[in-house]
Design a protein that fits this description.
5 strands; 40% helix; alpha/beta; single chain; 21% strand
């Protein structure tokens, strides 16, 4: 394949549809070769609103639905900080690439665990 040939897009899921999740969804929609396919938020109406606004075909109230979705290649973690480490570890266990909004975790031990996952 040459560099001018089109590659399959990276299909991403976004966890967290608060302020930072919306910022990231806007950036993802502008990035070439990246397609958001599912968003999640515990307040399902926020996930639904984000899905409508950004043309994302699926939404859910459960972050694990994003992490375990077989069509998702990479997960953007934009949830509250206290959930980051567990979500990173779950992504690693499910073979997903991860982009995590800072911080990785809320203490050093969790940070090391998440990095080593």
């Amino acid at each position: 394949m040459t560099t001018t040939e089109a590659k399959d897009p990276v299909k991403v899921g976004v966890i967290g549809c608060g302020r930072i999740g919306i910022v990231h969804l806007g950036a993802i929609n502008k990035a070439p070769g990246v397609v958001p396919i599912v968003v999640s938020n515990p307040t399902v109406s926020k996930a639904e609103d984000a899905a409508k606004k950004f043309g994302v075909p699926k939404f859910t109230g459960d972050a694990m639905d994003v992490i375990t979705d077989p069509d998702v290649d990479a997960v953007w973690i934009c949830s509250p900080s206290q959930f980051h480490a567990d979500q990173i570890k779950a992504c690693a266990a499910n073979g997903k690439h991860v982009f995590c909004e800072k911080p990785i975790a809320t203490d050093l031990a969790e940070t090391v665990e998440a990095i080593n996952a």
